[in-house]
Design goal:
This protein is mainly beta and 511 residues long. The chain contains 6 helices and 26 strands. It folds into 2 domains: 135 residues, no CATH class; 256 residues, Neuraminidase (6 Propeller), CATH 2.120.10. Helices cover 6% and strands 24% of the residues. Strand 13 and strand 14 form a beta hairpin. The relative contact order is 0.09.
Amino acid sequence: MIVYTEGTMSPRAWLCTLALVGCAEPFTEALDKEVDTGSKPDKDTDSDTEIPHTGGGGGTGFETDTDTEDTDWDETTDTDGDGILDTEEGRDDAGSRDSDLDGTADYLDDDSDGDGIADVVEGATRGSDGSLPDTDADGNPDYLDKDSDGDGISDLVEGDPAVPDTDGDGTADFRDLDTDDDGLTDEIEGREDWDGDGVENWRDSYNDNNLGPLEFVAITTEFNSPIGIDFHESSKSVVLSVNYSTGDPEALETVLPDGSHATFSSLSGVTDEVKIATVRSGGSGGFTTGELFVGNGVDGQIVRISADGSTVTNPWHDLPGGSNGLMRGSLYIDRTGVWGGELIVATTDGEVWRIDNAGVAMSIADFPGTHFEGLCTVPDNPTRFGPLAGTIIVGAEGEGLLYSIATDGTATRYSLGVAVEDIDIIVPTENFFGVNYGTSRLIGVLGEEFLPIAGDILLTQESVTNVGLFRLYWDGVDLLTMELAATTTSDTIAQWEHTTFADAGIVEVPD
């Protein structure tokens, strides 16, 4: 090191000496250097791309200024060209952030969170306010979020091998809550392979036939002439209609987890078959979770019962006109959104209506003389449900047909070899409960046994030769049915009425 001491030589001679011994920069360059005063560094007047950085908490030394206008860390620039500004990527007076701890600061890292999806992809399509994309609205922008859509499947998996869009809906898998468009969210399906076909659930649009015999277990409690059943979410139990055909001394009972049952509401004296439609959470129709709707055995009339059973409005609604038919087994609260989350009813005289929370009814279709029984709305997922997607499906038991009714009221009839009594969507992990009128028993099956065909449609037939329950599914080409099988140790199945899937457990079929 050469040290200049005042009096030993002139300043100019000392500088010349530095040049002769190989000083890092000649005198003219050194004079042009600026000093960081601890706030914003000065401009680079000589455009040499090196800025002295001796303050501001960012360390001492020279920084590269890639655009030769100003220091990268303190200006509206994008060093790595990923569409995200350096300041947004955590480069400021405090230093630089390295989110994935790979040794490369975010402002220089093409994949800041190390999830295999480039920042230029995850940072695209900003909001109208200029905010970076945050698909799951968790406060963590996608380019720093290892699970951008919050579905429990990491971006590293959903973005492999590139940035796929499995269902071709224009939303990349890492941002798609239903990657395979099968009506079941990725969060529900997860990375298991329920049907054992080698394709993980979240990317598997079709369930293969890999369902073994089911164990049908009779719940210990016996009931007096049970007919209808549905899941009562607000009490996490099931509600049954009993005492057919008088409805006396009570028409409804709840069945608790310990198998005991108690009167639900003051409803009594209703005649004919009483089927039940309950309101579940997440609906869009304005109804209260736990409310019940049933027919009362009078032409065109519907009863509404509060979630706790304390208020019974009988009738709540009387369909316009006359000779509408009864609500015998055909009431359903839409959960697809296609029908506005409204109450859908189909009568024993071929009428189909939608009724909103205020009791305003709108006719959908009318097929005079057709006895409808069994009703469901199908999610609008053509990949999973084919031509049934987004329609109302209702059984015409006497004709041996299934009607699929579109939003414009047109219907397609399918002969599936099943005299439909009831219809349900098979809900993953929820237990099956069915009213077996022939034995006056409630029969259940553990939900996990249905997993290989979860998301498909279950058709119930009143008359039983083998099991009387049929899987209805779309294989990508055709609508097919398959009768389910029972284990040799299953309880006796004599005559089905109403069935449901419920997030509830009862004694022998625990939650």
